[in-house]
Design brief:
It is built from 9 helices and 14 strands. The longest helix is centred in the first third of the chain and has 44 residues.
Amino acid sequence: MTATVFAVGILGLVVAALAWAVYQLLLQNGRLALRLDKIEGLLRDSGELTDTPEETGLKGHAPGALLHDFALPAAGGGTMTLSEWRGRRVLLAFVHPECPFSKDLLKKLPPPAPAPAPAVLLISSGGSEQNRRLAAELRIEHPLLVQQAHEVGDLLRARGTPTGYLVGAEGLTETGLLVGAEPLLAALGGAAPAGAAAGTVQGPYQRSLEGSKVRRNGLPAGAPAPEFTLPSLDGTEFSLRHWFGRRILLVFSDPGCGPCQALAPKLEAIHRRARNLEVLMVSRGDAEVNRAKAREQQLSFPIVLQKHWEISKAYGMFATPIAFLIGADRRLAGDVAVGEEAILRLAEL
């Protein structure tokens, strides 16, 4: 009898433990579902996610977006990055060797032309040998890069072929997502494709800039300068607030950006001669690469590193090189300066 009671007690404890475990599992699943619902809500609020079946998923970038950099093998050998083309307008077109519409585009592409005409950068899928045959068959003279599947297309929100963007010399999209051979050729010829004006996205993914909650054209003059603390190249932490009360030229840069590297020695000259202006650079990418660039150009002003674009987002513009002038009152003394000439003019205010 005692043994039976003991066994029943043990069984009851096991059942209670299992019930508690199931309860905790359901509770955690409920919390996870709530978190997923919150994330989906944020994506819907920003316009990145819709509920309609034909539009479910990410949309093409709107005009004024800074495209992620990438590195891909070229069909003819070697590797190429998007940032190599900074300083030149580029028609970035996604094609596929088995897509008849892509072949129609490729047949109609004019030969490479010098600036100010846009360069053409083609991104294809499939094997390198298949794309080499395509290039030979159609006598393609433009760079043809090969992605393994559609990883770069997904990264840049170009989900079909032929699609693409016209990208400005500063790395910002001048059009929304262009869908089809004719809009791509029209952009290459300098004509604005229908629907490609500022604030729209070409093709099946329609979106206005007004619908985005992320500022893309920089904080306006008079706005308070957002504070931040970032690691500097020497490993110490730098806080912007330590310089509040001084005039600061805040420059956003990238070691892979050609115009940024051309600007850097001129910023160093400003840093050395200016008595009432501090120069601070916010860069990104690998710390050692940034240190090597700083040593090469003998830069002595502070350089701090953001992980991705978090500080750029706070200041409302995803581009390099750009700059803001922060006054002694901690407010922006002017609108954002984009490009070398505008930044140097801003430093003279």
